[in-house]
Design goal:
It holds the Pfam family ABC_tran. The protein contains eight helices and ten strands. With 243 residues, it is α/β, with parallel strands linked by helices. It binds adenosine-5'-triphosphate (ATP).
């Protein structure tokens, strides 16, 4: 069994060229081990979104390598990359991104249907129970609270048994109590289901739900905090500058 879910090797991303060039990621090397929950934090403009786009294959680095397991994403043509994103990566966004005309169950199983696969009934019911959506499968997103909608999005991210779940500010639209429940859910899918989760956030409380926090500053890795607390994360962020 591979122990590394995702690795970045000397990843650089430069937007534009000449005097207007912006280096959004500068020589970022890191590994994300399987079964870990990692948060990525950094001041505004430090490269968090660029990092997530490169790590997920949504964008290609200017140089360096991104590997999902043993697969070098840079070696893949667009169609193969799309399949990797669909089949091997789960995504959770701040804005849920559910389809309003589909039921909860149809939203959750959409990635499988797009891949021409059927849901494994036992796995689906395990995922639905884990995210606390039992009895709500025939509802539509508009009938659910924000926290429940994010649970649907998390179930959708898990349904294809991805190698890594990438979350972009997953609690950014939620009140603090609901956010805490969603963070506990993300932590539990790691601790109890062995998932791997990588989450970008601005929020020290959200980051402290992870096993470790990676800090970005000016596109470079600027340290790691193991067993974070909100206070330690906030302190580190304050030392990195404006946030
Ligand atoms: N498409 C683009 N074209 C040009 N520059 C870009 C582009 N996307 C990002 N940048 C620049 O790259 C740097 C990193 O941006 P990025 O969005 O990754 O940071 P971030 O940490 O996610 O910021 P925020 O927390 O404000 O969302 C910034 O200087 C930004 O202006």
């Amino acid at each position: 069994m591979r122990t590394v879910a995702l690795s970045l090797r000397a990843v650089r991303k430069v937007y534009g060229s000449g005097s207007g060039a912006v280096t959004a990621l500068d020589d970022v090397t890191l590994t994300v081990r399987r079964g870990t929950f990692t948060a990525v934090m950094g001041p505004s403009g430090s490269g968090k979104s660029t990092f997530l786009h490169c790590a997920s294959g949504m964008d290609r680095p200017t140089s360096g390598q991104v590997l999902l397991g043993d697969t070098d994403l840079g070696s893949l043509k667009e169609a193969a990359l799309t399949e990797v994103r669909r089949d091997r990566i789960g995504f959770v966004f701040q804005a849920y991104n559910l389809l309003p005309s589909l039921t909860v169950e149809q939203n959750i199983t959409l990635p499988l249907r797009l891949a021409g696969r059927r849901a494994d009934a036992a796995w689906l019911s395990q995922v639905v129970a884990r995210v606390g959506l039992d009895g709500r499968l025939s509802r539509h997103p508009s009938e659910l609270s924000g926290g429940q909608q994010q649970r649907v999005a998390i179930a959708r991210a898990l349904v294809a048994r991805p190698e890594v779940v990438l979350a972009d500010e997953p609690t950014g639209a939620l009140d603090s109590r609901t956010a805490q429940q969603v963070l506990e859910l993300l932590r539990s899918i790691v601790d109890e289901m062995g998932q791997t989760v990588l989450m970008v956030t601005h929020d020290p409380v959200a980051a402290s739900a992870a096993h470790s926090v990676l800090f970005l500053a000016d596109g470079r890795l600027a340290g790691e905090l193991i067993s974070p607390t909100p206070e330690k994360v906030a302190d580190r962020m304050t030392r990195l500058g404006e946030w």
